[in-house]
Design the sequence.
């Protein structure tokens, strides 16, 4: 009898720890496929600020530049750059999903 067969006899199912680890890795890959603030084409400092305040791509894509100015104190130009990047990323993701 081979060593592999003996191991399978002793422990035919992966341990709960191994299964949990595999599920965690699988979740990380699934989450990595979802565009978020990290994927915006804006400065890293702006990304960090948005994340620290709980902003998501979904929230940004529904906001107006005036709301962003009011909440963060950005000028209209910066707010426009952020919102354009969010809308572009969201539309790219929508195109990728419909192409599949």
Sequence:
């Amino acid at each position: 009898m081979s060593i592999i067969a003996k191991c399978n006899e002793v422990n035919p199912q992966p341990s709960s720890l191994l299964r949990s680890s595999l599920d965690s890795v699988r979740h990380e890959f699934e989450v990595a496929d979802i565009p978020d603030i990290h994927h915006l084409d804006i400065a890293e400092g702006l990304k960090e600020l948005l994340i620290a305040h709980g902003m998501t791509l979904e929230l940004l894509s529904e906001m107006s530049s005036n709301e962003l100015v009011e909440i963060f104190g950005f000028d209209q130009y910066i707010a426009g750059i952020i919102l354009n990047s969010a809308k572009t990323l969201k539309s790219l993701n929508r195109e990728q999903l419909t192409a599949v």
Notes: Residues 76-99 form the longest helix (24 residues). Residues 3-32 form one domain. The helical segments are 3-10, 16-32, 44-52, 57-62, 65-72, 76-99. The mean pLDDT is 76.
